[in-house]
Design a protein that fits this description.
The structure holds two protein chains of two kinds.
Chain A lengths: L7 H7 L1 H20 L4 H10 L3 H12 L4 H12 L5 H9 L8 H4 L5 H12 L6 H25 L8 H8 L1 H13 L5 H17 L2 H18 L2
Helix pairs in contact in A: 1-9, 2-3, 2-4, 2-9, 3-9, 4-5, 6-8, 12-13
Chain B lengths: L2 H23 L10 H22 L7 H21 L2 H19 L1
Classes of the chains: A mainly alpha, B mainly alpha.
Keywords (chain B): Membrane, Transmembrane, Transmembrane helix
Protein name (chain B): Branched-subunit amino acid transport protein AzlD
Keywords (chain A): Cell membrane, Membrane, Transmembrane, Transmembrane helix, Transport
């Protein structure tokens, strides 16, 4: 007997662990945005339009340091290029019969964590359904946007009396990058990661932070292309 | 609304939609694997994340041990929780929590 397809509510319930994780990170993004001089509306717009945590923090750093618009956009786009691999990996697991009629809407929510949760449920034998993907994605998206608004309304000065909390939230970004790095770490990717890291250090020390980021990404991607 | 911010957000957001939705809509998983494009795509993500981790941690590295200890503690927490739970969100929150606690304990 075939198991029933999971519903929208099943997806919403499956998003709860992601919601619990997203709320504090999004809150710290909202606080960081107002600290960097952006309004609550601008913080809301970044979360609503970009919806990619680590690159949003980077957007704040680039925009507040006066980096050129196209270089900032290119850096964010390069950073999120990894998402192009999530759809094929998910649909390969979902099977040839899986519907993608509404993918233009639900696939927008395929963040690192939503992808991980969806792929995990398919690997555990659950059937694929677009309703489930809508529920899973919507819960995470709502938490991200609402957390951002709460943090932005609390404001950059909200944590002045709490230096330890402020320091902890400030460490959220390197912690997030390190955790993402660990999640994709493999023997195959080690040369790419090492070359990118060394390129960043060399570029930052000789040319500056923004150039270091571009140089590191380019060096790592070229190292990946060169391998067989 | 800051015009530069809106431009960057719209460009990055549009690219995000293309990266996330287009491969699903076109069922690119049915295409033949291999080639330089696949190598480029599979390398760019890890390269970007490695770059951004290094860029984020570099300013925190200092010879002042009192300032460095919370960074070390937070980093170890991320490594430990990720090894135990394989959770990006859990490891991130643990790293931030331990870093904040270390700052509080060191006064």
């Amino acid at each position: 007997m075939t198991a029933p397809k999971p519903s929208f509510l099943n997806g919403l319930a499956a998003s709860l662990p992601i919601v619990m994780g997203y709320l504090p990170i999004a809150f710290s993004f909202g606080v960081a945005a107002t600290r960097a001089g952006f309004s609550a509306t601008e913080a809301f717009a970044l979360s609503m339009i970009i919806y990619a945590g680590a690159s949003q923090f980077l957007a704040l750093a680039l925009l507040s340091s006066g980096a050129p618009v196209l270089i900032s956009a290119f850096t964010l786009i390069a950073m999120n290029l990894r998402h192009v691999l999530y759809g094929p990996a998910l649909m390969r697991e979902a099977g040839d019969q899986a519907s993608t009629r509404h993918a233009w809407a639900w696939a927008w929510g395929l963040t690192d964590e939503v992808f991980g949760q969806a792929l995990g449920s398919l690997a555990r034998g659950q059937r694929f359904s677009e309703s489930y993907m809508f529920g899973l994605g919507l819960g995470a998206y709502a938490a991200w946007v609402l957390g951002t608004v709460a943090g932005a309304l609390a404001g950059g000065g909200a944590l002045e009396a709490w230096p330890a909390v402020s320091a902890g939230l400030g460490f959220m970004l390197p912690a997030l990058f390190l955790a993402l790095l660990l999640s994709i770490l493999s023997r195959r990717q080690l040369p790419v990661i090492a070359v990118a890291g060394l390129g960043t250090v060399a570029g930052t020390l000789t040319l500056g932070a923004t150039s270091g980021i571009l140089l590191g990404m380019l060096a790592g991607a070229l190292a990946g292309m060169a391998r067989r | 609304m800051n015009g530069d911010l809106l431009t960057v957000a719209l460009l990055a957001g549009a690219a995000n939609w293309v990266f996330r939705a287009l491969p699903v809509i076109t069922r690119s998983d049915r295409m033949a694997p291999g080639g330089w494009l696949e190598r480029f795509l599979s390398a760019t993500g890890p390269a970007a994340i490695a770059t951004l981790f290094v860029a984020a941690i570099l300013p925190a590295l200092t010879p002042d041990l009192r300032a460095l200890l919370p960074v070390i503690a937070g980093t170890l927490a991320v490594l430990g929780v990720h090894a135990a739970r394989r959770s990006v969100v859990g490891a991130t929150l643990a790293g931030a929590l331990v870093h904040g606690l270390a700052v509080w304990l060191l006064g």
